[in-house]
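Researcher: I'd like a candidate sequence for this fold, 164 residues long. If you have to choose between options at a position, lean toward the conservative one.
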């Protein structure tokens, strides 16, 4: 099998998560497995992920954050607490990558971790390059660092024309 692709959906528009999960669902239809890990969306994402949990065991959904609010809306004390949860999520992602725990790995809002300086662009690039050849990886977020851009096979910019 050829090396699987790295897809990035980024920009200021809505629909990046939907596009990423839609691609993962297409792969499920091909008999593949997927893991979705969401970052920076708060514990409310876990509630929204209940629908995706109906697709287990082929698709597994994870959100490690405990606060209901999005990360950007938290006060400094709660941000620090949430960063520990996010680090746990990143360790989980590294384990999924190192064990080849799925065919498709969706890292929703992981580009935001780079933007918030929780994860360096170099560390994310290393995660991408260390994935098994047959694992597809789908990343989302508002902004893409050039180091991540150079790792991607397909980059889609999602914009809200009313904000430009």
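Model: Candidate sequence:
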């Amino acid at each position: 099998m050829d090396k699987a692709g790295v897809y990035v959906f980024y920009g200021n528009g809505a629909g990046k998560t939907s596009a990423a999960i839609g691609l993962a669902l297409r792969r499920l239809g091909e008999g593949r497995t997927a893991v979705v890990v969401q970052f920076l969306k708060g514990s409310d994402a876990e509630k929204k992920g209940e629908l995706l949990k109906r697709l287990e065991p082929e698709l597994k959904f994870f959100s490690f954050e405990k606060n209901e609010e999005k990360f950007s809306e938290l006060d400094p004390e709660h941000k620090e607490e949430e960063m520990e949860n996010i680090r746990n999520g990143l360790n989980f992602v590294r384990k999924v990558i190192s064990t080849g725990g799925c065919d498709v790995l969706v890292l929703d809002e992981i580009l935001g971790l780079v933007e918030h300086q929780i994860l360096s662009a170099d560390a994310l690039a290393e995660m991408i390059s260390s994935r098994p050849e047959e694992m597809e990886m789908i990343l989302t977020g508002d902004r893409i660092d050039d180091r991540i851009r150079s790792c991607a096979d397909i980059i889609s910019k999602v914009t809200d024309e009313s904000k430009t």
